[in-house]
């Protein structure tokens, strides 16, 4: 199969940046090495910026763990934490980031069922994660196979309450979307700062997992693309970005769906996706085509 003809111009068509968003991409992110012992694995990086009285720290794990992210937001004198990454060494770096702020965690939550986001929960000591009952049930079933340390603080944690609340004097809205990249996913929106923590609804420069329902995933992204509540996206894999990435993600998913339908087997799908998106990282995520293939 020939690679899908997809140019960067085509991906970004319609993704016009506001002056503020362009300035964010140029100057706001301040990368720094994470501070924890990683053994033979390279350290992840922390990318920080401040807006509207909120300071955002996005921890991006190294390539070996597919650049999965965890976000630590300083809201006044309290923290909002999203996800724990996949393995103890990267989760230890998230824990070190949390400790470096000197602030208590008000709410920590796991955004969805996939273990690259909850596998490190046990290594984030002293933090109890919340999530939705449907997500917790799926995590409990997967944790039972013993591949990851049992996320006791999550399995015994409280349910996350959806809707609007206040943390450290900052308004936060928790939303729930179904049947996209995962069966269930939590999105946190800070409307005053125009920030959305979308996690695996959007990947930035990293191959997407096959997803539960790509057509519904696209429809959800189209709805979010037209939502004026946010300009900055904190994603599940890769660097924070702007709302223009919704367009890129939609086009990527359309290509992925066509390649999926046209491929004779997972190997052909993987080869074509790699040829179509040569600059993308996280090739391991393409291997998930195998268990998804007959669904």
UniProtKB/TrEMBL annotation:
Source domain of life: Bacteria
Regions that span the bilayer: none
InterPro entries: Metallo-B-lactamas (IPR001279), NDM-1-like (IPR050855), RibonucZ/Hydroxyglut_hydro (IPR036866), TAT_signal (IPR006311)
Protein name per its UniProtKB record: MBL fold metallo-hydrolase
Pfam families listed in its UniProt record: Lactamase_B
Residue ranges annotated for the Metallo-beta-lactamase domain, each copy included: 67-237
Organism of origin: Roseinatronobacter domitianus
Stretches of the chain forming a coiled coil according to its record: none
